[in-house]
Design brief:
11 helices, Tetracycline Repressor, domain 2, 220 residues, 0% strand
Length: 220
């Protein structure tokens, strides 16, 4: 009768590999934070390993290549935010007769979701602006394929309907409205630290809070 195979001994000095979801999630969080802080192009697997307090071999254990890690950041950190922001809105018991009211309700809900997502994920505004919005951003093509084109088109159609009803000025370009919402929401969040420094000696030096940002984005 053969004896059970023995577990291969670990080489001296080599740390054990925590084969669990928490270790992998920690690497993803570390990578996402570094991507937002210093850019995807400037972040190596060695940087991620050092920040996470592990070896580069440990990073390779969970992600076979840098591209695989970047794909995982998009799929597991960014795509869920897109899904949440664009998930169907609660339907009122009595549909709004005024299309402009429906548009305002939609914008308010989306802005609220964007701000909530940014509060829960402080890396989101900087990462989105640097790596998705910017021409040549390292995540741009990976993220664009996950945008809900049908829902964006439906929103554009809603704005156009409001214009036909005379509820929104015809000078507004429907295709630019959501881009304006993104800019009015994510840009102040991404640059809040800068403005705190600039306004430090101003009459009102307190930080611009997320409620003020949401209200500003909703009413413009």
């Amino acid at each position: 009768m053969r004896s059970a195979p023995t577990t291969p001994s670990r080489r001296p000095g080599r740390p054990p590999r925590p084969d669990n979801a928490a270790a992998r999630a920690n690497l993803l969080d570390t990578a996402t934070g570094l991507f937002a802080a210093q850019g995807v192009a400037a972040t190596t697997l060695t940087h991620i390993a050092q920040r996470a307090g592990v070896t580069t071999a440990m990073v390779h254990y969970y992600f076979k290549s840098r591209d695989q890690l970047i794909d995982a950041v998009v799929q597991e950190r960014i795509v869920p935010v897109i899904g949440y922001v664009w998930s169907p809105l609660p339907q009122p018991q009595i549909p709004a007769a005024d299309p402009a009211a429906a548009a305002r309700a939609f914008i308010a809900e989306v802005v609220g979701r964007l701000v909530q997502s940014a509060v829960e994920r402080p890396w989101l505004p900087a990462l989105w602006l640097h790596e998705v919005v910017n021409e040549g951003g390292q995540l741009r093509e990976r993220v664009l394929r996950h945008l809900p084109v049908e829902r964006l088109q439906a929103f554009i159609g809603l704005i156009a309907e409001c214009q036909r009803a005379g509820a929104i000025t015809p000078d507004v370009e429907p295709r630019l409205v959501f881009l304006s919402v993104l800019g009015l929401t994510l840009l102040p969040l991404a640059t809040s630290g800068l403005w705190r420094r600039v306004l430090l000696d101003a009459a009102q030096p307190q930080a611009i809070d997320t409620r003020a940002i949401a209200a500003h984005a909703t009413h413009h």
